[in-house]
Design goal:
The complex is a heterodimer of chains A (264) and B (323).
Chain A (H helix, E strand, L loop, with lengths): L5 H18 L1 H28 L10 H32 L3 H6 L7 H28 L7 H28 L3 H6 L2 H5 L15 H9 L2 H13 L5 H26 L5
Helix pairs in contact in A: 1-5, 2-3, 2-5, 3-5, 3-6, 3-10, 5-6, 6-10, 6-11, 10-11
Chain B lengths: L7 E10 L2 E11 L4 E5 L6 H8 L7 E6 L2 E2 L4 H7 E4 L11 H11 L4 H14 L15 H13 L5 E5 L7 H16 L3 E6 L2 H7 L2 E6 L2 E6 L1 H7 L4 E6 L2 H10 L4 E3 L4 E5 L4 H9 L6 E7 L3 H9 L19
Parallel strand pairs in B: 3-8, 3-9, 6-7, 7-8
Antiparallel strand pairs in B: 1-2, 1-4, 4-5, 9-10, 11-13, 11-14, 12-13
Classes of the chains: A mainly alpha (264), B alpha/beta (323).
Chain lengths: 264, 323
């Protein structure tokens, strides 16, 4: 394996994946539509009531306050939603004959995976920009300075990178494209049981403990702090730790699944 | 790699899936610059051999050297020397023909200008210029196969594996593909080909290995193999089961199909031999007969004493949709 060509081969594979994304836009549209639907649903259907229950608003906030509260959660749900699409596109790609061709070529073999991951991170960036623009359209405003926004972008890229390695692994491990579209669903569900939609204090004891300790909560709290210009505190380090762990495990797992010489 | 070293050297290749032995001690030597055809029915282990030699599948046992590299210890060296065109299309259907070729050129680390030239040459040579900027998913079966082969050859491998390259192709596409293989051989490329068709092996190969149940049951030139099945067979169609039974009794060496009322009698190719077969038949019970030259079934019958087990998967050539 010519490791010297890893970067070059990865760039080639990235170009291939970007072409795929461009040629098959319906998947991207579906993945972006999902968080937008949730955003509209939560702000306009539940937002009035849920906003009134928000703490620190001096007897409750309104729909506008609730929009500000859930936008970080919706953005991270967008990342999770695109990651789900990555599992589908990885699994689909593995069913095509060209993967065998790549395996029999003297290329940096992991570049097939790197191409998927980099392509997916770019797709996530695109999706997050659209969803964020939607939130602005609905009236989301922030006090964050340029540094806060830069931090938010870096954080979203980091989260996208780690969730993508995980879902590439899920896509490789799936025995069919159908399986690959089901196994990562927990990623889209988990943000609901976090600090994303209601403060965890409002949940019953067992659920609250789960919500406070699952990785999406520090991710959402950190993003919320960055875009509202408040202190991130320990949540930032927790988030970086979770992301590093998920990315490392996902990457090692994916490489193992892809690089093994099949015995059957 | 020395000049005299064979392109492929295989000793004692064994491979099983669970209890099922797919390859049972295969020995194979292919000299550089020659074409070797592995001939056998479905399930004989042809694709398994190609997958193992192209590093896609691990062998259970055996000494394997491809292009001078040990397949297990130095798979990277093997991959750098080979090109593989499998039975199933290995093209990216979402990309255009041009993009597919460019992808291969980039992965072969050709420079920008060299890659563009190589792509243009391949499009021209494989008659894909008009379809170059269409997505490959819109291509006909023959075009896909040509693109597939062009993607294998654009990296200029010294050794190519062709796994049933013409299965499902119409006769014209098949002949086009044979011509391309011959050009490669003229350039000094070594070819390992698998096929179900004796004719294809006959047309292309310097040596043919007959694979049956995971073993090479015979090896030689096409002429040597055909000498063992000199005349093909006479296929006789009967009007009723009684006539078939009577003829089958008179020809214990023949294979009979009691559902179709047909009997295949091995022939030696001579007029006298044919006359003996005809004389033994009762005119009243015969509905028709054909004299066929040797095909894979005859080779198998002669070499293994039985007919091809898997119904020879000879689907009629897929229809080519005109571009």
């Amino acid at each position: 394996m010519s490791t010297a060509y890893t970067v070059r081969d990865s760039a080639t594979m990235l170009r291939r994946n970007l072409l795929h994304i461009r040629r098959y836009p319906s998947l991207s549209i579906m993945l972006v539509a999902q968080p937008i639907v949730f955003l509209l649903l939560f702000v306009y259907v539940f937002g009035g009531t849920l906003g009134a229950g928000l703490p620190g608003q001096g007897g409750g906030g309104d729909r506008g306050d609730y929009l500000v509260f859930i936008t970080p959660g919706i953005l991270i749900m967008t990342v999770a939603s695109v990651a789900l699409g990555t599992a589908i596109s990885t699994a689909t790609d593995m069913t095509t004959g060209i993967i065998s061709r790549f395996r029999a070529m003297d290329i940096a073999r992991a570049s097939v995976l790197t191409g998927h991951v980099l392509g997916a991170v770019l797709r996530t960036g695109f999706a997050v920009v659209i969803v964020a623009a939607f939130a602005f359209l609905l009236g989301f405003r922030s006090d964050a300075g340029p540094l806060g926004w830069l931090g938010a972008v870096a954080l979203l890229v980091l989260i996208a990178f780690s969730l993508t390695w995980l879902t590439v692994g899920l896509g490789l491990a799936a025995d069919s494209v159908e399986t690959a579209s089901n196994t990562p669903l927990f990623l889209v569900m988990l943000p609901f049981i976090s600090s994303g939609f209601v403060p965890t204090d409002a949940m019953p004891a067992g659920l609250r403990q789960f919500a406070e300790h699952q990785p999406f909560t520090p991710m959402i709290d950190t993003l919320r702090a960055l875009v509202t210009g408040t202190e991130t505190g320990t949540d930032l380090w927790l988030t970086i730790g979770w992301c590093a762990l998920i990315a490392l495990l996902g990457c090692l797992w994916s490489r193992r699944l892809f690089l093994r010489v099949p015995t059957k | 790699m020395t000049a005299t070293r064979p392109a492929i050297e295989v000793v004692g290749l064994t491979r099983s899936y669970g209890d099922h032995t797919v390859l049972n001690g295969v020995d194979l030597t292919v000299p550089e610059g020659t074409v070797y055809a592995l001939l056998g029915p479905n399930g004989a282990g042809k694709t398994t051999i190609v997958n193992i030699l192209s590093t896609l599948l691990a062998p259970d046992a055996g000494e394997l050297r491809v292009a001078g590299f040990d397949v297990r210890r130095d798979p990277g060296g093997v991959r750098a020397a080979i090109g593989v065109t499998g039975q199933f299309s290995a093209i990216d259907e979402l990309l255009t023909g041009r993009e597919n070729l460019r992808l291969m050129a980039d992965l072969a680390h050709l420079g920008r200008a060299a890659a563009a030239t190589a792509v243009a040459v391949m499009l021209e040579r494989f008659d894909l210029v008009d379809a170059a900027d269409r997505r490959a998913q819109t291509y006909s079966g023959g075009m896909k196969r040509r693109l597939d082969l062009a993607m294998t050859l654009i990296t200029r491998p010294r050794l190519i594996f062709l796994d049933e390259p013409t299965t499902g192709l119409d006769p014209r596409s098949r002949r086009d593909l044979w011509a391309i293989v011959r050009e490669q051989v003229a350039d000094g490329v070594t070819v390992l080909l698998t096929t179900q068709y004796l004719e294809e092996a006959d047309q292309l190969a310097d040596r043919i290995g007959v694979l049956d149940g995971g073993r090479l049951v015979a090896e030689g030139t096409a002429a040597q193999l055909k000498r063992r099945v000199p005349g093909g067979h006479v296929s006789v169609q009967f009007r009723h089961a009684a006539a078939l039974a009577a003829a089958a009794a008179a020809h214990p060496e023949a294979t009979s199909d009691t559902d179709a009322f047909t009997l295949q009698v091995p022939a030696d190719g001579s007029i006298a031999g044919l006359r003996r077969v005809l004389d033994s038949l009762d005119d009243e019970g015969v509905a028709g007969l054909t004299v066929a030259s040797a095909d894979l079934d005859d080779v198998f019958l002669a070499l293994t004493g039985r007919a091809v087990e898997v119904p020879a998967a000879e689907a009629p050539a897929a229809e080519e949709i005109p571009a």
